[in-house]
Amino acid sequence: MSCTCSWWERLSCPAILPDRYRRQWKWIVTVSLAVVYFVSWGNIHSYPLLFGPLQEEFKTSAIETGWVGSVNIGLNCLASPLAAFLERKIGFRMTTALGVLLCAVGVFSSSFAPQLFMLYFTYGTMYGLGINLSFHASLCLMVQYFPTQNCRRATSIIMIGGTSGMLVFSPVMERLIRMFTWRGALRISGIFVLCLGLPFALLCKSPEETAKEVERVDRKYSKCAEALEDSVGKYKRDLQKVYPEDDTDDRRVWKTNSSEDCDDNENEDEGCSLRGGSKTHGTNSNCISDKEHAIDLLENVVVQEEEEKLGCQKWLFILGSWRSWFFLVSVFISTFSWSFYWVNLVSHLSNVGFSQRQSALVLSTCAAAELITKVLLALFGDRLPVSNVSILAIQGIITSAFTVGVMYINSFGVGIGIILGVGSMRGVYQVVPYMGCVEIIGTRWGDEAQTLTLFVQGLGYLVGALPSGAIFDLTQSYQTCLVMVAVLFIVSSVALFIIQIFDRFRARKEKELPATTDVTSIHFALQNEVISDRVTAL
């Protein structure tokens, strides 16, 4: 009887990978999520290139055309409660795969829109919802796989995938629009998203899903091994009937028996961790490494049952702190301000005399600066001596200064220089808030912290482009809008500085640890109580 494990199980399950790959499965998931970001975020960042062609074909105003991008960017964060519900019901892997499928269908079907309002559903709602499903799942997976160490590095690697997509998609979309119009460009892009994103999305499992699949494949392999053992025994008995023990040619039976025993020993050595058996000699180290790997997979999942018992109490704890509200308000204001760069930047550059090709180069330059910043955060982010909240506050002040510079862009060279700074700050903002919320709320409720942060960001993106479009329709200029954006960045930084000042003042007055550290200590204490029993059972 042959093994009944499917080809996909042999390809994607960590249980049947070599030990060196199983111990690094969390990094395989990280790289897979980066690829998913590459194909999904590249399109959404290219919407400014579609702004002009859409406005020209459908004869719509700036606020109507910009609202398509606002709905898209808003829903890729605003639908986080739905993403959290799906993750509990169907798991992280299927949620990520469903997100990629919605992205591909949304982009492809947008090419057939006869009127602009159809794009609100296809490109705005469907595509934005698909990005949110994969985006929320990836952030939660990072908190589960990297609760304390390398979280900033892993998050930066994922965001590098999105920035690389923006860097590649901007010039490619500009060329595709010129060659095949915006409809043909969206069709080609939708097919590309599906073909490249879906296979990698199926690799994105949570530690709990990985542990369950390891156990399931372990049982299946055990049944296969028992069936194979019975078949070998029957084959040996048939041979002994043909070649009795007193036969001079019994060497054939001896050769079969010895070779089968040798193969069984090799298979048992390789599958020690799968069947749970204890072997002698060199296999003990493999079993120990498998136990350490199981601890690594389960350390962020074992408290899930305890969390479900709390129910609404955890939300009362999270939302009952003024620090959480200050952080969420700051994120909303920052996201509201960043909406100008997502939706209206190319329109502003065209208004000051930039061609479509120059605008595409500016977007690519912004993406390059963003990519470099994320690479630096991935390499050195965990070594920085400041907190994520402090980094976020400093980013707001610097971005406000660059926004003032955008008001005075009068040539292509000046625009490139200022956009380099804007791209660097955007790279910081796409990484740090998702770790800053965990600092404020605590790792015990990391998934809830990510859900709240993404939901608030979605609100900011959803309404952020409305004032910019309205001001432009009234004044035919973005100068007033840029002044508003610069002031709002400063306000968001002030809210974060208030949190930091309060924490430092309290640290001087109290000898006890901050509340967020206490929650983290409780979190790991609960984990240590349950991990040993779960690992033994596994």
Automatic annotation (TrEMBL):
Q: Name one GO cellular component term.
A: plasma membrane
Enumerate the subcellular locations listed in this protein's record, separating them with semicolons. Answer: Membrane
Q: Does the keyword Transmembrane apply?
A: yes
Which residue intervals are annotated with compositional bias (Acidic residues) in the record? 260-271
Residue intervals passing through the bilayer? 27-47, 98-121, 127-147, 154-173, 185-204, 324-341, 361-380, 392-420, 482-502
Positions in coiled-coil regions: none
Instruction: Specify the protein's topology with respect to the membrane.
Output: Multi-pass membrane protein
Stored Pfam families = MFS_1
Primary location: membrane
Supply the alphabetized keyword list.
Membrane, Transmembrane, Transmembrane helix
**Transmembrane helix among keywords:** yes
Where on the tree of life does the source sit, at the highest rank? Eukaryota
Q: Where is the Major facilitator superfamily (MFS) profile domain?
A: 29-504
The annotated region (Disordered) lies at: 250-284
Q: Extract the GO molecular function terms from the UniProt entry.
A: monocarboxylic acid transmembrane transporter activity
Name it.
Major facilitator superfamily (MFS) profile domain-containing protein
